[in-house]
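Sequence only, no structure available. Ideas?
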Amino acid sequence: MGISARRLGEGEYVVAFTRTHWKALVLPVFALLCTCALTGFLLAGVSSGGGYVELRWLVLAVAALAVLWFTVRPFLRWRTASYTLTNRRLISRSGIFTRTGREIPLHRVADVRYERGVVDRLLGCGTLVIFEGSEGGRLVLPDVPRVEALQLAMTDLLFSNPDGLSGDSGADRRWTPYRR
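Reply:
I predicted one. Tokens follow.
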């Protein structure tokens, strides 16, 4: 889905919708596991008798805050961030409580690049860097799944005629939409 159909212009359609790769959730899951293990260890070390009830509640409260901060918050950031490519613009949206977004019309895109490190290549993701032709500078989309396919879809949109036919070779070649 990505963006509501009522927010699209006439004749505009969604080519690709994605959010950051699941690798953005690796550290939050690791933090959750470590917090649970440390909390279990500390609770087992504090005896259930005597005046240690307050200490047990303190350990649980600190663990709950750690889970909220290091696990739930990054998950919500990941869940609410999205990238949508239409046949006319690129839309980037993010934010949990305060939504922020950036839209770049495709006719203003000067260059589209991608960067993939060793880990990114193993996981099938990368960073997409879009250079805008105005003073807006550049937009960096980190950890995009199948970044090469999205970059190819954007390039095809940039160098095709409005009817979807390639303007470079003159051949009747239509590109296929990017799929997650």
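The mean pLDDT is 83.
Hope that gets you unstuck.
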